[in-house]
């Protein structure tokens, strides 16, 4: 009988324990949302100060270009390469970030995923819009949450650059067909004479 009563008491405590954990995680979730906002602001303003404050010293960031940067200095160098200097391909970037569902807690590690709606303006004025996916890992170190990795990716089979290339291939193919038909027509006429 005592075992039965003890079991009932334990089951009665489960909802309270889950509720307490959810409340604790809600504060962490709020912090994660503020980190995401700071990342978005940093990217939109091309001032990485807010983003860098949340990164671990050895953070790893994998970009849509398939390049990877390890450490804050390398991450800054990547953005400088993309936006500054005579060979920088980008003029501007506007990002709107969102989180997919709830972050997943693994003790002192959190994994979150989401998407960004990115608008990139190239130096020549060309504008590309991407639906980008991201996954981030955040670890609690010395009482502070630090982003240790972020991966950005796009669909390699359906994106604005690929669609543009496919459209150009069709255009050039049709133009080549027309030119070929015209050459064949004129060569045929010249042979008849």
Helix and strand composition category: alpha+beta
CATH architecture of the largest domain: Roll
Order of H and E elements? HHEEHEEEEEH
How much beta, percentage-wise? 25-35%
- As an assembly, this protein is single chain
- Mean pLDDT comes to 83
* Uncertain residue segments: 13-21
CATH topology name of the largest domain: Nuclear Transport Factor 2, Chain: A
Helical percentage: 40-55%
The level-1 CATH class of the largest domain: Alpha Beta
Number of strands: 7
What gyration radius follows from the Cα positions, in whole Å?
A: 27 Å
The major pleated sheet works out as: 7 strands, mixed
Q: How many alpha or pi helices?
A: 4
Which properties best describe this structure?
Nuclear Transport Factor 2, Chain: A; 193 residues; 33% strand; seven-stranded mixed β-sheet
